[in-house]
Amino acid sequence: MTSSEVARPAGGAARAITRTLSDDPLGGTVRRTVLPSGLRVLTEAIPAMRSVSFGIWVAVGSRDETGPQAGAAHFLEHLLFKGTNKRSALEISSEIEAVGGETNAFTTKEYTCYYARVLDEDLPLAIDVMCDLVADSVLAAPDVETERGVILEEIAMHDDEPGDEVHDLFARAVYGDHPLGRLISGTEETVTPMTRRQIQSFYRRRYTAPQIVIAAAGNLDHAAVVKLVRQALRGTPLDTDPAAPAAHRPATPAVRTRPAANLVEPKETEQAHVILGCPGIDRTDERRFALGVLNNVLGGGMSSRLFQEIREQRGLAYSVYSYASQYADSGLFAVYAGCAPGKVDEVLDLTRAELQRVAATGITEGELARGKGMSKGSFVLGLEDTGSRMSRLAKGELLYGNLMPVDELLARVDAVTLDDVNGLAADLLARPMSLAVVGPFDESAFAAR
User: Are 130 and 148 in contact, with CB atoms under 8 Å apart?
Assistant: First the structure.
């Protein structure tokens, strides 16, 4: 690792600190600059590309809301595109689209991201527009009312998608009233009374320079990106006094999960949607590489045990898979299946039997090799575009406080042993399982299971 300092203009006491994090043979040169305000800028230069993905990541998500604020982070994400002191909503979208670019945003439980993808020659425009909307949105009262209606429609649309709804129901089964168990969008009951003042307060208290990571990947020059970011933020609320970057969200104390529960959302659907699972591990747990292998073996692809048993051999479901979600201090492991209502019992019995079998006897050497190959291949193939590389930079900085080189990550997967996976399986899959079901069932249909 090498480092160098980039001084502010004459007369300024604070200095921006720039470091070269890696010169990855599987990617480009990664550099990181910490501005005096505590805002961080990371770039990966990939000269072979003709595009750049630029993202502004804020370490604020739905878990940072109080109960009455539920949905504020997502509401704010919508509102920042509605206009700034320099641009109207139409100008924000038209300036990017006029050069063939695209821009969007998303909110998760632990962070929010605003991003654009443009031709390399249009990166200065993207930086100016995106920094403007994140740093200096006006949150006009009429726009609050307009977006309130849009978000309520989004919530209603989500309620009409049982395949999505069941995942939220499962989170509530595991986490209960904890913020990790709540809807990212909030509910009609929390969004309807939310005021502009509440959203404005959330915006200015949470969107501070030390909480923000800016990441870009593609055909770019790091020093030029830093200069453009500083110009775009000059005079905005993010152009603040010197401060240290915020530490990444701590892993302790661990989130308290509720006892295993069965939750049913009665709905007249042609297909039942079921999730069976348990609390998992947090994202810094050293066993996360073994978990990736275990997940691949159980339900990570068409060759997985659950897919072969439930779909290929018995034809009980079209979609069946397992997945792991990881947070700073907790996680989930679950199996999803969509099947005819009359087949739910058989699908659940087969799923439980397979999980118990793997917990008791583990996986085979052949499955270990296949699971490791899937993990490595999917990771490397996922780095084939600038958007995924930009996301990797930001998540490494925001969620872990460091960027693990590609070769090191692949080596960590290679180092997973059969004992690692089987030990994790014996622990994880023996935990009490919660069940979430959306379909044509009574609320008490699964109470005794």
Answer: no
The per-residue pLDDT for 449 is: 59
Residue 256 within a domain:
no
Q: How far is CA 121 from CA 51, 124, 141, 180, in A?
A: 8, 8, 36, 41
Cα Rg for the chain, rounded, in angstroms? 23
The reply to whether 215 and 306 lie within a common domain is no
- Interval 160-193: pLDDT, tens: 999 999 999 999 999 999 999 999 999 999 999 9
Q: Tell me the per-residue pLDDT of 271-316, one tens digit each, with 9 for 90 and over.
A: 999 999 999 999 999 999 999 999 999 999 999 999 999 999 999 9
Q: Is the domain of 45 the same as that of 192?
A: yes
Distant-in-sequence, close-in-space partners of 81: CB < 8 Å, separation ≥ 6: 89, 92, 93, 105, 133
Count Cβ atoms within 10 A of the Cβ of residue 10 and give its class: 0-12 exposed, 13-18 middle, 19 or more buried: exposed
CB 165 within 8 A of CB 184: no
User: Are residues 223 and 322 located together in one domain of the fold?
Assistant: no
Q: State phi, psi for 116 to the nearest 5 degrees.
A: -140, 150
The DSSP-derived string for 296-338 is HHHHSSTTSHHIIIIIIIT--EEEEEEEEEE-SS-EEEEEEEE
Whether 222 and 281 map to the same domain: the answer is no
Query: Buried b vs exposed e over 380-401: b needs ≥16 C-beta within 10 Å?
Result: eeebeebbebbbbbbbbbbbee
Ordered strands of the 331-339 beta sheet: 262-266, 434-439, 272-279, 331-339, 317-326
pLDDT digits (tens, 9 = 90+) for 217-276: 999 999 999 999 999 999 999 999 999 999 988 877 778 888 999 999 999 999 999 999
Out of 5, 44, 65, 77, which one is annotated catalytic?
Answer: 77
Is 383 found in the same domain as 423? yes
* 60 plus 104 within the same structural domain: yes
What's residue 18's pLDDT? 77
CATH number at residue 419: 3.30.830.10
Q: How confident is residue 26, by pLDDT bands cut at 50, 70 and 90?
A: low
What's the rounded Cα separation, in Å, for the pair 22 and 225? 18
- Please check whether residues 272 and 205 belong to one and the same domain: no
Counted domains in the chain: 2
Catalytic residue status for 77 = yes
Residues 184 and 328 occupy one common structural domain: no
The parent domain of residue 214 ranges over 2-233
Half-sphere exposure of 315 (CA within 13 A, CB side): 0
pLDDT per position as a tens digit, 138-148: 999 999 999 99
Question: Does 401 map to a domain?
Answer: yes
